[in-house]
Structure formats: C-alpha cells, structure tokens
Design goal:
- There is one protein chain.
- It contains 3 helices and 13 strands; from the N terminus they run αβββββββββββββαα.
- It is α+β, with helices and mostly antiparallel strands and 175 residues long.
- The protein is globular and about 55 Å long.
- Helix content is 14%, strand content 31%.
- It has a 3-stranded antiparallel β-sheet, with no helix packed on it. Strands 4-10-9 form a 3-stranded antiparallel β-sheet, with no helix packed on it. The protein has a 3-stranded antiparallel β-sheet with strand order 5-7-6.
- It has one domain (5-174): Beta-clip-like.
- Bound molecules: zinc ion (ZN).
- Residues 87, 129, 131, 133, 136-137 line the site of zinc ion.
C-alpha cells in the first residue's frame, strides 16, 4: 500500500495492545499514532466488532459519526481510534452491523486505514491528506465537501448516503 515517503523516514515505537493481531506505531518525536496489522486479512473479512464507550452531540478528532443528526461515538475498543484516514482505505466501519470490515487485502505490516468521509459528513478538523494514493483527494473535510462522483467508488455509511440524497433534493429544488 502507498505510504507517505516523508513519514517513512521518521522513527516510531511499537505499542502492544490487548488484541495480538494489531499493534500501534507511535511516531517520534511527534507522538502521532497509527494502527498496524500483525496478521493477514482477506478483502471482505470481518476484522472485529466494535461498540462505543461514549456518545456525543459534537464531533471531535477522535469521534466517528453514526447518524445524520449529530451523533458521534468514541470507539470501543479504544485502539480503533488510531485507524487513520487514507483515500484508498483497507477497512470500513460498518455501522449497521457494528463490525470493522476489510475492504482490501491486508497483509502483515500494513497500516489499517479508513476513508473518513465514509462516516463523517462535516469534520471538526479538516486536514490535508498525504496518503500517497494516486487518487488522493487532498483536503479532507467530510463527505459534505465531496461530489457524488468522487464518493461513488467508496463504501459509505447509511447516514452519509441519506445526507447525499437530501443534498441532491436540495440541489434540484434550487434549480
Ligand atoms: Zn489521500
């Protein structure tokens, strides 16, 4: 999988977690964390189920949006929080089944990444993506800031699909 060549030159420390199939890499010296696989997962495989330790009405950098109305959760287990964004993701948070699913083959040593706009409509903290994917979208701010054509190649949560449908209706009305 494509990675940021700049990040590859930095050193990191490995943090073991309760699930031996994964480990956290913490970049030095900035402390940025990422989740890596220690085993192989086939595309389509259910990696594990998840829940929420907290529900909030406002998003922040650690929450995942779960409904069109402002409903945002802190993931449980907590290490899932370190799954970063990639424009070519290898996992998807399926909020219908509350299961984390592989959407591409994941090999031992790969970073787990998901597509933030698959759950986030409008993010509290936008950022410039440097995922290195040939289809990198650059500025990531949530699905509200992307057009339907860009989004159609991704797995999207139901609430994002609903909001896209509403957006389309509004656009039609405005015409
Ligand atoms: Zn990108």
């Amino acid at each position: 999988m494509a990675t940021n060549p700049f990040l590859e030159t930095l050193s990191f420390v490995v943090i073991d977690i309760e699930d031996p199939r994964f480990e956290i890499h913490e970049l030095q010296p900035d402390g940025h964390r990422a989740l890596f696989a220690k085993t192989h997962f086939q595309a389509g495989a259910v990696i594990r189920s998840f829940g929420s330790s907290q529900t909030m009405t406002q998003p922040d950098r650690y929450t995942v949006q779960t409904a069109a109305a402002d409903r945002h959760i802190i993931l449980d287990p907590e290490f899932l929080l370190y799954i970063n964004h990639n424009c070519r993701p290898n996992v998807f948070f399926d909020l219908r089944t509350m299961q984390l699913r592989a959407v591409a083959p994941i090999h031992e040593g790969d970073e787990l990444t998901f597509f933030y706009p698959s759950t986030e409509w409008s993010m509290s903290e936008a950022f410039d993506c440097h995922c290195g994917s040939a289809h990198c979208l650059g500025r990531i701010q949530g699905a509200a800031h992307l057009d339907d054509d860009t989004l159609k190649s991704y797995d999207l949560s139901d609430h994002i699909k609903d909001l896209l449908w509403l957006r389309k209706l509004e656009q039609r009305k405005a015409r």
